[in-house]
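hey can u run this one w/ calcium ion bound, need the structure tokens asap thx
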Amino acid sequence: MDRQWWKESVVYQIYPRSFMDSNGDGIGDLQGIISRLDYLKTLGVDVVWLSPVYESPNDDNGYDISNYQAIMDEFGTIEDWEELLQGLHERGMKLIMDLVVNHSSDEHQWFVESRKSKDNPYRDYYIWRPGKDGREPNNWGSFFSGSAWEYDKNTDEYFLHLFSRKQPDLNWENPKVRQEVYDMMTWWLDKGIDGFRMDVINLISKEQQLLDAEGPEGQYQFGGKSFVNGPRIHEFLQEMNREVLSKYDVMTVGETVEVTPEDAALFVGKDRGELNMVFQFELMGIDSGPSGKWDVTPWTLADFKRVVSKWQTALQGNGWNSLYLNNHDQPRMVSRFGNDSSPELRNVSGKMLATLLHTLQGTPYIYQGEELGMTNVRFESIEDYKDIEILNMHKEYTAAGRDEKTIMESIYSKGRDNARTPMQWNSGPQAGFTTGTPWLPINPNYKEINADQAVADPNSIFHYYKRLIELRKQHDIIVYGDYQILREEDDQIYAYLRSLGEEKLLVVLNFFEAPAEFVLPDSIHFSGQELLISNYEIPAEHSLRHMNLRPYEARVYKLQ
Ligand code: ISL
Ligand code: CA
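ok here u go:
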């Protein structure tokens, strides 16, 4: 058992813009977060991951950084940030910062210089190419619709931007860029932070020929072959580890798009000297069709189990999993994988999913509001949406003649603003998030779903999370036990066994509203049982051999 604090931790993600506004301008900020630290302490989380708070023109809500060593005015000052770090540390919590270095903002001083002339000393900080036959250098599409290249008439060349045109990709081939990044990381680490979440870190190395991607002529294509886990990715991460990370006791989690467990093992393998864990996207893809995330397709439990089991097994004993069911880029977990159609079903299904999140092998990541069972939102008009990914897609699909209703439905199920509506603190005006007008409308269900209600109600999802977090602290097996799926073919129940030495942990989850029967395989022997947690009352006398599970029922037993 390779004990590590970051394996035993539960992480809570804060999306600062939507967490808590302290000064009535409608935008969440650092003082707002500080005012809610006791709430986080009550919940019991160990680490806070703060989405970007750096200076930014906010084309992509802070994921476009114009100064890596300054705080965004709207969020506060560096003194506020120091106070936040201190407030967390005083309460025994840690802080990890978002590191966004695949790209910067086009308003970063480096890019302002870079675009000035072909011989500017900063030219090679970014990826510039001449056009081809009066068009872009290649056919790559951006993650946010349209071409991945933007023409700059000043020097008659194009620059690469895998995300928005205000997010030019940094040129990691240039050793000066790498040194700047390492120095900046060191600056933050010396301030006492406890690690980094690294934005799309597996895209930083580009195959240098920048070849066209395969696919039909005249359409932009996903160029992933040339930049997903690119040729020098492991060299760069090992260098970063050697130069910076290895000098501190910190945790790292890389956001890695399109990776398989085999790829992941190279990033997180014990002796690789790269990262502690990665966020994988395979599970987030089970409800997408062949043309991508907006091609909404119903998910199946078979796929869900197959993907989770594959990752659990592949990294066991070598790497370490991160566990998440939603974040600021994904729809709300309870709306997507649970059931938000009534308060009762929302409550039990939110708890069932929470049980999964905390009892798999890996480090759980809770996204703000998940612990309240916050849901997706359906704004009537596209005007109410703010996310650049949504707005660009809407524009592109509308221009292509797609019907408005279908476009809106795909936004309702997959749009990133589902996760970004402000945190619901109480049933008062604007859900207690702000005294002003929130930057993104509040979900109208805040009177029913809010933190005050949840903290006051012992049967709430919030209290269930608190209990799960405590259990992880009390039982090593929940953190370190090996994973084995049970009754894999069952299309309604997800059950698995964790084992550590002589101990076993049995987790049984009914993933649907219909009742279901679970029969424990005869091969599992035990002489004693202890129910650790369930989202229903369980009679004192009952048999584990046959369980009749109610809607979304979840049970966790320790077996001896
Ligand atoms: O949001 C997505 C799911 O559709 C992805 O395309 C997402 O853009 C990708 O996972 C990368 O995400 C990260 O980098 C982006 C930023 O917009 C996201 O918020 C961030 O998490 C660019 O920095
Ligand atoms: Ca504010």
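The pocket of calcium ion (ligand 2) is lined by residues 21-23, 25, 27, 29 (CB under 6 Å). anyway lmk if its weird
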